[in-house]
Structures are given as C-alpha cells and as structure tokens.
Design goal:
Elements: H1 15-26, H2 29-44, H3 46-58, H4 82-96, H5 104-113, H6 130-134, H7 144-161, H8 174-196, H9 210-222, H10 228-239, H11 245-258
Helix pairs in contact: 2-3, 4-5, 9-10, 9-11
Length: 260
C-alpha cells in the first residue's frame, strides 16, 4: 500500500510563497498578454520607437543604445539629481503607453541596451494585504503622519495604472469571488476601466497571432528532447511567451498526435 504524501503548506509572505506566486502568475493569460503587448511595442509600434529615439536623444544616449558591457556609472541618469529626473521621465513614458510604473525599469533596460527583460510579477492585476500595508507600526522608524504620507503617495501611484480596486473580506470563497466578478464585471468594473483607457493604446487589443502559435508549437515539438526548463527559456526567447512545463507537454502531445 502506497503511503500518501502530504503536501507541505507554503507560509504566506515567505520567499517560497513569492516564488510560487511567480510560477502561478506566469501561467495566467494576463501575463502572456502583457508580454505580447511589450513585444508589439518594441517590434511593430512606430510611435513607441519614435518615443524611444526622442528619449535617447534628450539624454545623449546612442541612437541604438549602449553595448551590454558599457560602463555607465558616470552618466547623468545614474547620478543625483539626474537619476530622479530620468526615472520621472521613464514613469511618464510607461504611463503614456498604459503600462504599470513598474515597467519603467523594463523601459530603462530597453532604452539603454535595446534589450528586453520580462518581469512576470508586474501585471495589470495586483494583490495586496491592504490592512497590513496601511497599519501603522510605532516601531517602524517613522511618525504616524509620515507613514500616512508614504502610503497615500504609493496608493496614488498605483491608482494611475490600476484605477479599479476590488476589496475582499476574509470570508469570501473562490467560488463567491468568481461569481461576483462574473456577474458585476460589465456593470461595475468595465465602466471604470473605460473611463481611464487611452483611446490610442494598443493595450487590450493585442492577440497572439495564429500563425505565430503554429510556429511556436512546431518549434516546441522539434526541440521536445530538451529539458523542460531549457525549452521554456528558448520559447520565451524566441516567441516571448511564458509557458509552464505541463503546457509544454500538452503542446508536444498535440503535435505528436497531428504528426502520426
């Protein structure tokens, strides 16, 4: 008789919990849509490329960026107060293209090195322990008024890219939450989203093309002999899609069936 192996609970807030969150976020449709949008900007948006060129010119950055091994420590954008102004410009550029301010650091990498670093933890949906964040800790080294000012500034910054807030009490179940969103999305959430959408933004209109999917699946099948972690990295590098191991196996099984 096989002994049942009990699953170890991951404690909330630990490094293991954060790692698991990253793994789960990478499986979501919203993570892949965000990645697809970024690729659309860098590879096909003439408007975005024009903005990048203007930005580089204003900061005396080479037209095609620096080489990866360039020493940039003496550049204005790495020194105070130039650094703060540079980041402010990045935040503005991120907001202009409907991106979370966290993506300003991705844009910085692209501006400086013409390179893409995808961070799957920055998505159009965020989860916070709001009470824990806003609760004042008298041993935290700041006064109550300083604490309030810090979090008001943070919430204002977040509200620019995430204007819709969904507050959930401790007793709501997964089924309750899904049911609530499904029934009230069009009536309550979408009108607020529409209020803040930028008319010219490509966000929400990007779809992964069928032809690209066919090419991706063929690539995965041709490289099925590789370790899954290596294959996942190659898929992201070549197609800018985050696929977990079970999904890779599913594609391989589908392609195997089609190639019989």
């Amino acid at each position: 008789m096989k002994r049942k192996i009990e699953k170890k609970e991951i404690e909330y807030g630990t490094p293991e919990h954060y790692e698991k969150s990253q793994e789960l976020i990478a499986k979501t449709a919203v993570a892949n849509k965000t990645a697809a949008y970024l690729i659309e900007l860098t590879e096909r948006s003439k408007d975005f490329q024009a903005s990048i060129k203007r930005f580089r010119k204003n900061w005396n950055i080479p037209e095609n960026g620096y080489s990866q091994d360039a020493d940039l420590k003496d550049r204005d954008f790495n020194k105070v107060p130039g650094e703060q102004k540079f980041l402010g410009n990045l935040f503005y550029l991120a907001d202009e293209y409907g991106l979370d301010v966290g993506w300003a650091y991705w844009i910085k990498q692209y501006i400086l090195y013409n390179d893409i670093i995808y961070a799957e933890d920055i998505t159009p949906v965020d989860i916070f322990d709001l009470y824990s964040m806003l609760k004042y800790d008298k041993d935290g080294g700041v006064t109550q008024s300083e604490h309030n000012e810090i979090w008001i500034d943070f919430l204002e910054m977040m509200a620019r890219s995430h204007p819709v807030a969904l507050l959930v009490d401790p007793y709501i179940t997964e089924r309750d939450l899904v049911d609530y969103i499904k029934k009230l999305y069009k009536h309550e959430i979408k009108p607020i989203q529409d209020e803040y959408k930028k008319p010219k933004s490509l966000r929400g209109r990007i779809r992964i093309r069928n032809e690209k999917i066919k090419q991706r699946d063929k690539f995965i099948y041709e490289n099925k002999h590789l370790p899954k972690s290596q294959l996942a990295s190659l898929v992201y590098r070549n197609f800018h899609q985050l696929l977990d191991h079970p999904y890779l196996n599913k594609i391989i099984a589908k392609m195997k069936q089609e190639n019989k």
